[in-house]
């Protein structure tokens, strides 16, 4: 499917936290949230956008939490990778119920439910108009799904990394805890690192900086935001080389 003339981005990678799938639940996957997300992705795909997703697993299991409870770090991280696969399969099922062809590619080989991640195969799926869901992070312990999102976005030649959050973008402090936090519409990679802004982990930011991959942090709970972003509307906060590079 050829991209529409009004699109700003031809190929995107969406980073979605596992917590974003919980809705108002304490854990697990909210059917309502999953359905709303699938509808938005279908609408964006219909515009001609090539879609890749990286989803976290914090709604099911967090490696850091397991470590705090006595698990060794490596085991906890692998358990977290498996949680991302569960979320990926749920998103795949929701998209395919809406007749959108989807492939789950896993950094851990679990051939009964997902294809192994092979860059050339993933690129071919995108070129054929399939949504690619990238599970199990990088396949290595000690690396977050933020780092996996940055790595895969670069590997798949995405034009932007969209970081889905529950707030409207980047703030000088947590806006939930501090009402006076300043909204920052544009920041540079170095400013994110130097100020310790809560965008993505340092490895992810550094990867994006080295490859000049812009990051847009936005509120995924606001209906229609994904479509607005790919059309080029000024939604959320942008991280790029310089503040003025919008």
Task: Pick out its properties.
two-stranded antiparallel sheet, 246 residues, 8 helices, 9-stranded mixed β-sheet, alpha/beta, Carbamate kinase
Description of the structure:
This protein is α/β, with parallel strands linked by helices and 246 residues long. It has one domain (11-240): Carbamate kinase. It is built from 8 helices and 11 strands. Helix 6 runs antiparallel to helix 7 (202-210). The mean pLDDT is 92.
Oligomer: single chain
Compute the separation of the termini in Å.
Answer: 27 Å
Q: Classify the helix fraction into a percent range.
A: 25-40%
Summarize the biggest pleated sheet. Answer: 9 strands, mixed
What does the secondary structure layout of this molecule look like, with pairings?
Blueprint: E1 11-16, H1 31-46, E2 50-55, H2 63-68, H3 73-97, E3 102-106, E4 115-116, H4 119-127, E5 131-135, H5 145-155, E6 160-165, E7 170-171, E8 183-184, E9 186-188, H6 189-195, H7 202-210, E10 215-219, H8 225-231, E11 237-240
Q: Short summary of the structure?
A:
By secondary structure, this protein is α/β, with parallel strands linked by helices. Helices cover 37% and strands 19% of the residues.
């Amino acid at each position: 499917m050829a991209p529409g003339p009004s699109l700003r981005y031809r190929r995107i990678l969406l980073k979605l936290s596992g917590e974003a799938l919980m809705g108002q639940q304490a854990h697990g996957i909210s059917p309502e949230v999953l359905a709303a997300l699938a509808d938005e992705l279908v609408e964006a795909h219909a515009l001609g956008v090539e879609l890749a997703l990286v989803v976290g697993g914090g709604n099911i299991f967090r490696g850091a939490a397991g470590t705090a409870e006595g698990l060794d770090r490596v085991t906890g991280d692998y358990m977290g990778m498996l949680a991302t696969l569960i979320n990926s399969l749920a998103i795949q099922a929701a998209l395919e119920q809406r007749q959108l062809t989807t492939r789950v590619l896993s950094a851990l080989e679990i051939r009964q439910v997902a294809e192994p991640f092979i860059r050339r195969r993933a690129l071919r799926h995108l070129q054929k108009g399939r949504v690619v869901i990238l599970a199990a992070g990088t396949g290595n312990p000690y690396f977050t799904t933020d780092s996996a999102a940055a790595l895969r976005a670069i590997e798949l030649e995405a034009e932007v990394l969209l970081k889905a959050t529950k707030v409207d973008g980047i703030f000088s402090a947590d806006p939930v805890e501090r009402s006076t936090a300043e909204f920052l519409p544009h920041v540079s990679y170095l400013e994110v690192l130097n100020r310790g802004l809560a965008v993505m982990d340092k490895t992810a930011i550094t990867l994006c900086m080295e490859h000049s991959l812009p990051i847009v942090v936005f509120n995924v709970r606001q209906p229609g935001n994904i479509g607005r972003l790919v059309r080029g509307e000024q939604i959320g906060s942008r991280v790029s080389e310089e503040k003025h590079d919008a």
